[in-house]
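Lab channel / #folding
Pinned by the channel admin:
"Please post every new chain as: sequence first, then the structure tokens as a reply. Keep commentary short and put observations after the output so the thread stays searchable."

First post following the new format, from NK:
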Amino acid sequence: MKPINWIIYIFIFIIFISQAHSLAVTGKKLRHHIQFEPGYTQEDTYQITNNEGYTSDYLIHTFYRTGADLSPYITITPERIQNVANQKSASFTVKLELPDKIDHPGRSLTWVKVDIDNTQGGGIRAVPSVAVSYYVYVLYPTKYITWSFNAPNMNVNEKKNFSVQVENLGEPTINTIYADISVVNLESNQTIQNIKTNTATNFESWDKITLLAEFDSTNLDPGNYKAIATLNYDGDTDIKESNFRIGSKNVEILNFTKKFELDAINKFDIIIESAWNTQISNIYADIIIYDLETNKELKKFKSLNTDLKPWEKKTLEAFFDTSGLEKKEYKAVINLNYEGASTRSEGIIKVDENINAETVEEIPGKFKLNLRAIITPMNILILLLIIFIIINIILAVGYFKRQPPKPPAEPIDPAVIDHINELRKKYNDNYIKEMMLKKGWSKEKVDRALKQASKKR
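Reply from TO:
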């Protein structure tokens, strides 16, 4: 791509980012979900923050999206805000007043949009906008439910719950609701189990429930399955399906590299896949190379270690040094090891010249001292700086050690000590200390005198 094209793309990206952040609206909530009630009222206050870089005017208005148009029930105050300086804010309120009835059942969405008013200024300016969402949900006059069904992946000899999530969006109360679930093996197309969820009663409008059915995979074969749920509610039914897998603790070897360059370190890729619904850790492979004619072991090496998430497919890396081998075919045996289990695979590989195999200079993880990489001008400067700092620390420590000791404290006259002990017969130490300070004694000397007088008592 030409440099000029990159400049254009970067310029467009900068404009896009600047527009996305040039206007911000904040409030307690920017997305409201409201269950319809006759005469329902709600009032919210929002802040507009101007990040345009210049003073701007704003228009606030409703914008119909879907369902019933809620615009007639929304009052915005004010609908236009003028002269908001850069990095300053202004507020507006939105009042929602629902009528006694909305004839459109289901979900209705109307936005309250904030746009930059570009009608007063000249020139071309970007016009970013943001919106607050008001969702109003109206019950259906007849029985109406929404539901989902989930059958989770699991392992052999494991129990898990199949779940049915249901919400009643109709006005009538549903007396009873439950689901029958059939489990089908997708390989044989045979039903292997029939189970049933718990039953819910008096399922009222707006209620949400979860129906559960326990599925036991004990003694089942690993593989792909399908669960078919039939939801039953007051004589009505609906059907949903969910595919799932039952796993066994097994890691499959799907493929591995077959061609290698002579006298080189080659990447030996092993493609593996987990058939287990739980993470498998510390997976590695032992690879042995044999002579095809004599079956003599010629090379043996290990792969790097890896982990596999449930059902994950990954490439396990190993490195094969072909030095000392001839240009011909060999047998490769791979033993994959993981958490006390193993998988074996073998195949014919070929070592030759100029076959476009992927090679590396050295095997990752092996230590090799590279003096050329270590001795660089930058590293030398860093080393000299460290030595300079250490020398200065040593000199500083030596300097402080050579400092002369502090002179001994001035001795206290024994007569003063005796006088203090005489005064203690009439006065407390605080009074004596206060009188000595007034006579010009330092606090340190007074404390020493009192301490020595106490020892002489």
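NK: Residues 145-247 form a domain with the Immunoglobulin-like fold (CATH 2.60.40.10).
TO: also worth noting, The CA atoms of residues 327 and 352 lie 5 Å apart.
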